[in-house]
Structure of Dabb family protein:
Amino acid sequence: MKEQSRRAFVKSSVGAGLGLGLSGSAPKELFVHHVYFYLKNPGSESDKAKLIEGLNKLAKVPTIKFVHIGTPAPTTRSVIERSYAVSWLCFFNNLMDEEIYQTHPIHLKFIEDYSALWEKVIVYDSVGPKR
């Protein structure tokens, strides 16, 4: 069995999850959508669990290529923002797929069912440079 470095393993694993070819290159229009949720009751583990439950349902929107649901890491550098409760990171092939996601019934139902849990949401959308 061929050994591979941790870096090569992570790159190939993430690449496979994003549907990247063997060359390791991303789709030209890769669209990244990263959302940070700030709960109304920041100390409530049950509210956090309920939001994560909703995000797992939201992950079923078919235009999403890869999703990661996370909570603040236990890192302490001064540049790290840790006041959010849950982050939602997802990748799309392009802007059009992200726009379909925005109006998809699963997304609209998620907002209807879970928006009472958060007081603030911050969204960072990004695209890679044109190749």
Q: What stands out?
A: The chain has one domain: 26-127. Helices lie at 6-17, 45-58, 95-103, 105-114. Strands lie at 31-39, 66-70, 86-92, 118-127. The chain is about 35% helix and 25% strand.
